[in-house]
Amino acid sequence: MRNIKLTIEYDGSSYFGWQRQPNKISIEAIIEETIQDLTKEDIKLIGSSRTDSGVHAKGQVANFITECKIPVFKIPSALNSKLPIDIVILDAEEVPLDFHARYSSVGKRYSYTILNRITPPALYKNYVAHCKYDLDFEKMKKASKYFLGTHDFSAFKSTGSSVKTSIRTISDIELIKDEEIIKLYIEGDGFLYNMVRIIAGTLIDVGRGRISCDSIEDIIRSKDRKRAGQTAPASGLCLERVYY
Amino acid sequence: MRNIKLTIEYDGSSYFGWQRQPNKISIEAIIEETIQDLTKEDIKLIGSSRTDSGVHAKGQVANFITECKIPVFKIPSALNSKLPIDIVILDAEEVPLDFHARYSSVGKRYSYTILNRITPPALYKNYVAHCKYDLDFEKMKKASKYFLGTHDFSAFKSTGSSVKTSIRTISDIELIKDEEIIKLYIEGDGFLYNMVRIIAGTLIDVGRGRISCDSIEDIIRSKDRKRAGQTAPASGLCLERVYY
Predict the structure, then answer these.
(1) Residues A16 and A135 grouped into a single domain
(2) Total number of domains constituting chain A
(3) Residue B161 has pLDDT above 80, yes or no
(4) Residue among A76, A80, A123 whose CB faces B56 most closely
(5) What are the E-state strand segments in B105-223?
(6) How many CB pairs (< 8 A) connect A and B?
(7) Which of A50, B74, B160, B168 is deepest in the core (most CB within 10 A)?
(8) ipTM > 0.85?
């Protein structure tokens, strides 16, 4: 019996997210079925993160237990030859049997990409969130720092997932501006449902002047979802890396 | 009578290139028909560059002569509301009547993007050329400098276009590496048919060790298309800017 850890890149544009759902095409189901087709076993794929519809991944991680004897270095090309072109297995490695893509994870890194200009994008349109309002980058940068550290992020969570606690630790947050693109990188021990997209939406509201930078502390403390910004669009979000 | 200059961004993935062709969907025809629909005139659109099928543009330029009275600042949004989402008018300005998008151009800047890793791309797949062979970036950089200056680029031209001379001046060439991405920027007074893609393909061959850096001078001098590298895929190419 072997435990195989996969690192996966995907373009989420055409899928109803990672998680298997009845009558909807999900990334999890497609990869799971492709592995079953390869191994001829009824394997169960465990993903680190249930990315939503339209969200991308450069480094999603998943694992499965198998009896099959295929050499691990052959797994990526064997699966990629059967997978659709918008899902690519970057790497496969054998890991201890107790490795669990979700529970063993100690941290995640996401990016969020904003195109800030009046006209909508023709290029890269599936990979950015378009904001036509003029954003004050320095204010967004200042505001972003308030998210660092350990907080109860109830104000930055959508309803729909049951978690024991809303306390999370953000260890790194970075905002980079390159001409019309504003890119947010955020790293933490875990993220609540829609947390990165609500943080991104809140920073957009700061950039537009609808929320002041210095009120972020208050909004966090309020634990009130209504005080944070909008949930920014899925297209801007990418799961960059999962740490173990 | 007014002459309107448009700056256009487009994703070339779904089109048979810029130029109007019978029974094929072209970017030129779509924009021209959209302008005709707006102005109710039989206008003729003049593009600066006939980008091929799958080639993108961040700054294609085109112009048209019109009698219509619509304020120039309203033209982008008026056209964008009717254009498909992968073609966006970034800007419109009124220019002198003798301005001609093609003949008035004094230079162009292109980028070419290579994804250099074993596995094919799931993300950004329409915007990169994938190269699975390990590329020696330093050799590519050294080789690129031989293209600078004024040369007869007959060895770097596909047949199929009739031009008076194959002499062109490359004023700037830059190669940038960012993890798995190698990006080529090239600027010159004009480019022959497929010239940027053949230069990119030749640099890829240098990176793979199939062509030595120091033979670029010889290849240029030979004027022999067979001695240069392959024509690299259209997806990596983007018309960044046209100078006037």
Answers:
(1) no
(2) 2
(3) no
(4) A123
(5) 107-116, 129-131, 149-152, 167-178, 181-188
(6) 59
(7) B168
(8) yes
